[in-house]
Amino acid sequence: MKILILAAGLGKRMKSKYPKVVHNVLGKPMINWVIETAKNLGKVGVVLGYKYEEVKKVILNNVEIFIQNEQLGTGHAVMCAKDFIDENDDLLILYGDVPFITVETLEKLKNEHEIKNNDVTILTAILENPSGYGRIIREGNKIRIVEEKDANDEIKRIKEINTGIYIFKGEFIKKNLANLNNKNAQEEYYLTDIISFSNKVSTVLVEDILEVTGINDKFQLALLEKEMRRRINTKLMLEGVRIIDPENVYIDATVKIGKDSIIYPFTFIEGETVIGEDCIIGPMTRIKDSKIGNNVKIIRSEVEKATIEDNVSVGPFSRLREGTHLKENVKIGNFVETKKSIVGTNSKAQHLTYLGDATIGNNVNIGAGTITCNYDGKNKHPTFIDDNAFIGSNSSLVAPVKIGKNSIIGAGSVITNNVPEDTLALGRARQINKEGWVKTKREENKNADSKK
């Protein structure tokens, strides 16, 4: 089967300078939800129109693209992709702004189509308020669809609606595209008109209306996202994850979380994140595209494109940036930032620290206020801290530099050269005490003021 996704519309109601189908839904462009589903069923083509260059930048690979320069209806959109249609293969029609259609529902539609040997099989739905939708009209063995703007009062009372999702025999649709006309209220070429050319038509009723709900404006986008998040959270809780306040936790559909982990409110878990068992996440935490082991605690922190092994604690107020790898039993404390750094087993940086382009061994203590000075204004440079080293508070390690095994860096040091193993390194000015200086200076200033 071939799948053609129609995504050429302007999306005026989105009130946006961006094409509707590139707006993110639960962390990814809405059109990519449809493409990912479609790829489970066959070869995929997409019809683009409004600002198509912007849409092409975000859509997934291995998709054929066709351009509809003028938006003259769904029938016209399919005409623009006529070279994609194979007479010997079925054609499934989907839409770039209907992101939550499932493979399971489309398989039911496909089975009905094949068993009945239909020319067309239509996915329909029952709505209590069908206003705005085309209605399914049954006349003996024939089925036709009447659009809302062309319907009389009797037809408008019908509650079974056309979702716009169909499977056509390739030979049938290719033959009948040429028979479409635009003699209707919209002066558009309706794909629905092709259905009236056949007596071999049947319908499949969708069970979950969310699957066929389109997104037309940002309010609908928010409503659909909210419902999908509710379902995602419900599924996770039934699988053994504890979510303290599901209405205030935001988890993408692609996220995986192990049982007995606890997610606190105001937490965002996004992208391809995997979290193990017995973790405590949040509150007020954001994790994206990261791999988290078992028994990890992350509190009031930001984590993106990082790897965290078992029994690690992070936060509060930590920021783990891309390329961070924390090994077992690491402790990263408040106001610590890491980037492209590996922190070895049992090491810790508890306070006010920046670790960039650093490789840190096992059992290392990073004192409060320590920074790796990894950028010289032009290039980034690495810092290496070997096992069992102790970095005193308020130290600056000017990269490239290596701190040897078992070495100690005195508090307040600026280290610009390598430090051998088992060495105490001090890189600060010698302290000088001038006793009585402050008292003398104060008296001088007092006398000067009295003479004014």
From TrEMBL:
<feature type="active site" description="Proton acceptor">
    <location>
        <position position="351"/>
    </location>
</feature>
<keyword id="KW-0133">Cell shape</keyword>
<comment type="function">
    <text>Catalyzes the last two sequential reactions in the de novo biosynthetic pathway for UDP-N-acetylglucosamine (UDP-GlcNAc). The C-terminal domain catalyzes the transfer of acetyl group from acetyl coenzyme A to glucosamine-1-phosphate (GlcN-1-P) to produce N-acetylglucosamine-1-phosphate (GlcNAc-1-P), which is converted into UDP-GlcNAc by the transfer of uridine 5-monophosphate (from uridine 5-triphosphate), a reaction catalyzed by the N-terminal domain.</text>
</comment>
<dbReference type="InterPro" id="IPR005835">
    <property type="entry name" value="NTP_transferase_dom"/>
</dbReference>
<feature type="binding site">
    <location>
        <begin position="6"/>
        <end position="9"/>
    </location>
    <ligand>
        <name>UDP-N-acetyl-alpha-D-glucosamine</name>
    </ligand>
</feature>
<feature type="binding site">
    <location>
        <begin position="95"/>
        <end position="97"/>
    </location>
    <ligand>
        <name>UDP-N-acetyl-alpha-D-glucosamine</name>
    </ligand>
</feature>
<dbReference type="GO" id="GO:0009245">
    <property type="term" value="P:lipid A biosynthetic process"/>
</dbReference>
<comment type="pathway">
    <text>Nucleotide-sugar biosynthesis; UDP-N-acetyl-alpha-D-glucosamine biosynthesis; N-acetyl-alpha-D-glucosamine 1-phosphate from alpha-D-glucosamine 6-phosphate (route II): step 2/2.</text>
</comment>
<feature type="binding site">
    <location>
        <position position="321"/>
    </location>
    <ligand>
        <name>UDP-N-acetyl-alpha-D-glucosamine</name>
    </ligand>
</feature>
<dbReference type="GO" id="GO:0003977">
    <property type="term" value="F:UDP-N-acetylglucosamine diphosphorylase activity"/>
</dbReference>
<comment type="pathway">
    <text>Bacterial outer membrane biogenesis; LPS lipid A biosynthesis.</text>
</comment>
<dbReference type="InterPro" id="IPR038009">
    <property type="entry name" value="GlmU_C_LbH"/>
</dbReference>
<comment type="similarity">
    <text>In the N-terminal section; belongs to the N-acetylglucosamine-1-phosphate uridyltransferase family.</text>
</comment>
<feature type="binding site">
    <location>
        <position position="365"/>
    </location>
    <ligand>
        <name>UDP-N-acetyl-alpha-D-glucosamine</name>
    </ligand>
</feature>
<feature type="binding site">
    <location>
        <position position="216"/>
    </location>
    <ligand>
        <name>UDP-N-acetyl-alpha-D-glucosamine</name>
    </ligand>
</feature>
<feature type="binding site">
    <location>
        <position position="68"/>
    </location>
    <ligand>
        <name>UDP-N-acetyl-alpha-D-glucosamine</name>
    </ligand>
</feature>
<dbReference type="GO" id="GO:0000287">
    <property type="term" value="F:magnesium ion binding"/>
</dbReference>
<dbReference type="GO" id="GO:0016020">
    <property type="term" value="C:membrane"/>
</dbReference>
<keyword id="KW-0511">Multifunctional enzyme</keyword>
<feature type="binding site">
    <location>
        <position position="368"/>
    </location>
    <ligand>
        <name>acetyl-CoA</name>
    </ligand>
</feature>
<dbReference type="InterPro" id="IPR050065">
    <property type="entry name" value="GlmU-like"/>
</dbReference>
<keyword id="KW-0548">Nucleotidyltransferase</keyword>
<feature type="domain" description="Nucleotidyl transferase">
    <location>
        <begin position="4"/>
        <end position="196"/>
    </location>
</feature>
<dbReference type="Pfam" id="PF00132">
    <property type="entry name" value="Hexapep"/>
</dbReference>
<feature type="binding site">
    <location>
        <position position="97"/>
    </location>
    <ligand>
        <name>Mg(2+)</name>
    </ligand>
</feature>
<feature type="region of interest" description="Linker">
    <location>
        <begin position="219"/>
        <end position="239"/>
    </location>
</feature>
<feature type="region of interest" description="N-acetyltransferase">
    <location>
        <begin position="240"/>
        <end position="452"/>
    </location>
</feature>
<keyword id="KW-0961">Cell wall biogenesis/degradation</keyword>
<keyword id="KW-0963">Cytoplasm</keyword>
<dbReference type="InterPro" id="IPR029044">
    <property type="entry name" value="Nucleotide-diphossugar_trans"/>
</dbReference>
<dbReference type="GO" id="GO:0000902">
    <property type="term" value="P:cell morphogenesis"/>
</dbReference>
<keyword id="KW-0479">Metal-binding</keyword>
<feature type="binding site">
    <location>
        <position position="20"/>
    </location>
    <ligand>
        <name>UDP-N-acetyl-alpha-D-glucosamine</name>
    </ligand>
</feature>
<feature type="binding site">
    <location>
        <position position="134"/>
    </location>
    <ligand>
        <name>UDP-N-acetyl-alpha-D-glucosamine</name>
    </ligand>
</feature>
<comment type="subunit">
    <text>Homotrimer.</text>
</comment>
<keyword id="KW-0573">Peptidoglycan synthesis</keyword>
<keyword id="KW-0460">Magnesium</keyword>
<feature type="binding site">
    <location>
        <begin position="374"/>
        <end position="375"/>
    </location>
    <ligand>
        <name>acetyl-CoA</name>
    </ligand>
</feature>
<feature type="binding site">
    <location>
        <begin position="73"/>
        <end position="74"/>
    </location>
    <ligand>
        <name>UDP-N-acetyl-alpha-D-glucosamine</name>
    </ligand>
</feature>
<dbReference type="InterPro" id="IPR005882">
    <property type="entry name" value="Bifunctional_GlmU"/>
</dbReference>
<feature type="binding site">
    <location>
        <position position="354"/>
    </location>
    <ligand>
        <name>UDP-N-acetyl-alpha-D-glucosamine</name>
    </ligand>
</feature>
<dbReference type="GO" id="GO:0006048">
    <property type="term" value="P:UDP-N-acetylglucosamine biosynthetic process"/>
</dbReference>
